[in-house]
Amino acid sequence: MAVITCIDDLKRLHKRRTPKMFYDYAESGSYTEQTFRENTTDFQKIRLRQKVAVDMEGRSTATKMIGRDVAMPVALAPVGLTGMQRADGEIKAARAAEKAGIPFTLSTMSICSIEDVAAHTTDPFWFQLYVMKDEDFVDATLERAKKAGCSALVLTLDLQILGQRHKDLKNGLTAPPKLTLPVLLDLATKWQWGFEMLQTKRRFFGNIVGHAKGVSDASSLGSWTAEQFDPKLDWSKIARIRDQWGGKLILKGILDEDDARLARDFGADAMIVSNHGGRQLDGALSAIRMLPKIREAVGPEMEIFMDSGIRSGQDVLKALALGANSTFIGRAFIHGLGAMGEQGVATALEIIRKELDITMALCGEKNVHDLGRHNVLLPTGFLDEYA
Ligand SMILES: Cc1cc2nc3c(=O)[nH]c(=O)nc-3n(C[C@H](O)[C@H](O)[C@H](O)COP(=O)(O)O)c2cc1C
């Protein structure tokens, strides 16, 4: 591919260069994938208002996320098994984020460990926690994140039980992959991936293997989740974790107005309006459709981030116009990583930054803080089609 101009170009390369098992893991939703699809198609329904003859010089995409200066209102979302999309993937993505001046969030289910990412970066990153039944493991993990200098905890609330993703079962997803005949045949055409993977020792769940007690098989996400994730997670347990952590706390996976009010009243520093990229409750509404209702429910002061479906700077602008302070991206950066490693993540971020900047100019805006409802046109009934 000669010139890369959009996230879709990176997605095509990602598909070509990464084992099918891991590409499919990223590019899928749960069950019928309705919510996964609507996360992106709902963005396309939102239209932008063109404004002309407005001075567009001196534009800025810079803002703050929970008090931290960021070059644009975008952070890298926690993505499990990032180090299987490309060898040392978490370190590569974290470095690209650092260079772009935006936060990186490390998943509990990462391949590179907390300490490893800290050793290879200079900016403090954010750590995402899945709450496990084993409280000692949770406490030890929080201590490790604190010691590594992580500056915020992203607590994921929407995956205490795994929504089924058919492709992962059909492909026999594990990390590292089991070398069956179909996998070997697939790897034959993905030689660069295999070559890089042979050069690294980071091929297992780095935060878990050697840290969690009595883990029988940490290679399969499905069985591990079923065994270890705490189905009893509720607000009292969230309070325990908040106290244990003692630092900035972002609650991830809010998709309902009542839950949003609870998160606000709980005193979280921010919340992420998200349906986990359509990977959990299939049939839930898209995050962008729920965002304006949630903003209305919690009022103007609460810091709201949004993810699920963002594939362009235009999408970032739409999210900000509908009430988000900032956004997270998952697949958009994973496509970059799978396509071209660290350079691919940098390319994805630069594509999104430029799209946001130019689209802001064409909307007659100079500053991300000025974006609002006046920049978008919504189809009739978009906000109250479902009641
Ligand atoms: C392959 C993949 C793995 C993910 N793993 C995690 C995870 O470990 N922890 C978490 O909180 N969210 C995880 N997510 C959800 C993302 O953080 C984010 O909510 C989602 O990707 C946003 O949707 P988008 O991919 O359309 O941008 C994952 C998403 C993908 C695509």
Structural description of this entry:
The chain has 387 residues and is α/β, with parallel strands linked by helices. The protein has one domain (7-377): Alpha-Beta Barrel (TIM Barrel), CATH 3.20.20.70. The protein is 44% helix and 11% strand. It has 16 helices and 12 strands. The protein has an 8-stranded parallel β-sheet. It has a two-stranded antiparallel sheet with strand order 1-12. Strands 2-3 form a two-stranded antiparallel ribbon. The longest helix has 32 residues, at 331-362. The protein starts with 6 loop residues before the first helix and ends in a 10-residue tail after the last strand. The model has no long low-confidence stretch (mean pLDDT 96). The structure holds flavin mononucleotide. Flavin mononucleotide (FMN) is lined by residues 25-26, 39, 77-80, 107, 109, 128, 156, 252, 274, 276-277, 279, 307-310, 329-332.
Order of strands in the sheet with the most strands?
4-11-10-9-8-7-6-5
The percentage helix is: 40-55%
N- to C-terminal distance: 45 Å
The total count of strands amounts to 12
Write a compact overview of the structure shown.
Its EC number is 1.-.-.-. The chain is of the alpha/beta class and 387 residues long.
